[in-house]
Amino acid sequence: MHLERVLCRNFRNFEELMIDLNPNLNIFLGANGQGKTNFLESIYLMATANSHRSSITSEMISWDQEKALVQLLLRRREGKIKLAMRLEKSGRQVEINDNPLDKVKELLGYLNAVLFSPEDLKLIKEGPSHRRDFIDLEISQVSRYYNHLLNKYDHILKQRNNLLKSIRDGKSADREMLSVWDEQIAAVGSKIILKRIEVIDKLKILARLSQRKITEGRENLELEYDISLNNFSKKLGEAELRELFIDSLIAKRDQEISRGYTVIGPHRDDIILKVNEMDLRKYGSQGQQRTAALALKLAELEFMKSETGEYPVLLLDDVFSELDGLRRKALINIIADKIQTIITATDGENLSGLKNNSYNVYQVKNGRIKRG
Ligand SMILES: Nc1ncnc2c1ncn2[C@@H]1O[C@H](COP(=O)(O)OP(=O)(O)OP(=O)(O)O)[C@@H](O)[C@H]1O
């Protein structure tokens, strides 16, 4: 798939912007703070229905305005699609081919995009929530049903936590109601866990391949789902996993009541990353961590291709200056003509290897973008 046109009106520092993109490579150059990341944000917002920088709609609207619009023309194998998001301080509305959708999340699955930015090192270095978000966002882009499960799980978790707090604080003694929530959280949570494991099994093969390629066979990257339920075995089917989930909740009853929240479930799980059998987060060098972040992103591209039959759009936010020769080469080889890529950089210094393709260059200055 590729984007043909991006239109932004009163989005961040863009008053009115209409950019026609090259189906292969697009390079956006500009000094710091001119609007390069804002441009990528407008695209990623349409892929994930959320900004990667802020969940607050009003922050994306130009400061002196009440409303903003982002509109994309997308070409997929089955034809052209027009996606639009209208942002107002009170919320967002989305449209597909000029037809409004009921929920913003229904935008998921039309535009698939992979974003790689220096921030992605957090995926390796920081806490489990970054890795959970990574896997959840990735699956949500190819499965609206999975996203629906996540929303349902969040809702059940909140209700269950409220009840646990009330019991702890002596405001409620409704332990029977707790059993009802146990059933519900286990039913939805088991589905989420099984899907994550299935996807991680695919990703680990792809990421391992990428890591070996980038390091010329020196590093083996491994990914493993780290589940918070005791006695879990990969052989369990959905019904058995649900039973195990409920039993585990019952075993944790006193602990959960004294803490006032749910201590096990997919919201507490993690992904363990190892290089050559060593825990990457704790012991990996900066270089190994950067390579793994890149390998995961490359795996994400291939995973989406295998799920949807088309490569997603690749957004690279100022990453070339941070990559060494080998990693840069690996990324350039992947991009080569088959994936529409949108790159931002402060200058073209590290991008020379890319320019064999057909490409457009744009200059970004103070919220204006000009080709050439
Ligand atoms: N809601 C908004 N309304 C108007 N301007 C905004 C808004 N949000 C951010 N900006 C402006 O956008 C600019 C930042 O743009 P952006 O983050 O795209 O920078 P960049 O070109 O990617 O630079 P860098 O290379 O430093 O990342 C800043 O000048 C900021 O003041």
UniProtKB/TrEMBL annotation:
Pfam families, alphabetized: SMC_N
Record's GO cellular component terms: cytoplasm
Primary location recorded for the protein, binned into one broad class: cytoplasm
The places in or outside the cell where this protein is found are: Cytoplasm
Binding site residues for ATP: 30-37
Q: Name one GO biological process term.
A: DNA replication
Keyword tags: ATP-binding, Cytoplasm, DNA damage, DNA repair, DNA replication, DNA-binding, Nucleotide-binding, SOS response
Q: Give start and end of each RecF/RecN/SMC N-terminal domain.
A: 3-369
The record's InterPro entries line, in alphabetical order, gives:
DNA-binding_RecF, DNA-binding_RecF_CS, P-loop_NTPase, RecF/RecN/SMC_N, RecF_2
Does the record's keyword annotation contain Nucleotide-binding? yes
Alphabetically, the GO molecular function entries are: ATP binding; single-stranded DNA binding
SUPFAM superfamilies (alphabetical): P-loop containing nucleoside triphosphate hydrolases
- Outline what the protein does: The RecF protein is involved in DNA metabolism; it is required for DNA replication and normal SOS inducibility. RecF binds preferentially to single-stranded, linear DNA. It also seems to bind ATP.
Similarity comment text for this entry = Belongs to the RecF family.
This chain's protein is named: DNA replication and repair protein RecF
Organism, scientific name: Halanaerobium saccharolyticum subsp. saccharolyticum DSM 6643
Give the gene symbol. Answer: recF
